Amino acid sequence: MRLIVHNMLQCHVKGCDSNNFPLQLSDVELEIHEIEYNHEFLQSLLTKLDWKAFVATAEQIGITSLPQTFPEEIDEDFLKKLHRILFETHIVEGKMICSNCSHEYPIRDGIPNMLLNEEELE
């Protein structure tokens, strides 16, 4: 699972409608999978990215080089660094935990399992 995907996931357990994003990462195993850099695609996603959540998630997995606030001026070096973190850093194993209800979503073979039991559905 790429970090860009994680930035779009939140808990959907019945009644869990606050403090359910971002999901906290735990016991993660990371891999780097290099992919071609695409400046235009990355630029188009920047407005959809929740920067504060992204930085918090990156810090959870040991990436501390991101600024706390999104920079006003963006250069190509920054975008390439961002590309590596968003698209090339993969969570292979681990779990995501909701800060509100503590529900755990496992990640296996790079795939997050967001399925809920019937009683957990809204």
Please tell me about this protein's structure.
The protein has a single domain (3-120), classed as N-terminal domain of TfIIb (Single Sheet). It is built from 4 helices and 4 strands. The chain has helices at residues 3-6, 39-45, 51-60, 76-88, and strands at 24-32, 89-97, 104-108, 111-112. The chain is of the alpha+beta class and 122 residues long. It holds the Pfam family Trm112p.
Q: Which CATH top level class fits?
A: Mainly Beta
**Number of distinct helices:** 4
CATH topology: N-terminal domain of TfIIb
**Shape assignment:** globular
Question: What proportion of the residues form beta strands (DSSP E)?
Answer: 15-25%
Strand order of the largest sheet: 1-2-3-4
Class from helix and strand fractions: alpha+beta
The arrangement of helices and strands along the chain is HEHHHEEE
Average residue pLDDT: 94
N-end to C-end Cα span: 25 Å
Q: For the report, how would you describe the main beta sheet?
A: 4 strands, antiparallel
Number of domains: 1
Number of strands: 4
What would you report as the Rg, rounded to the nearest angstrom? 15 Å
Helix content: 25-40%
Low-confidence regions: none
The CATH architecture name reads Single Sheet
Summary, kept brief:
Helix content is 28%, strand content 20%. With 122 residues, it is of the alpha+beta class.
Notable features of this structure?
about 120 residues; alpha+beta; N-terminal domain of TfIIb; four-stranded antiparallel β-sheet; 4 helices; about 30% helix; globular; 11764_t:CDS:1; protein heterodimerization activity; Trm112; Trm112-like
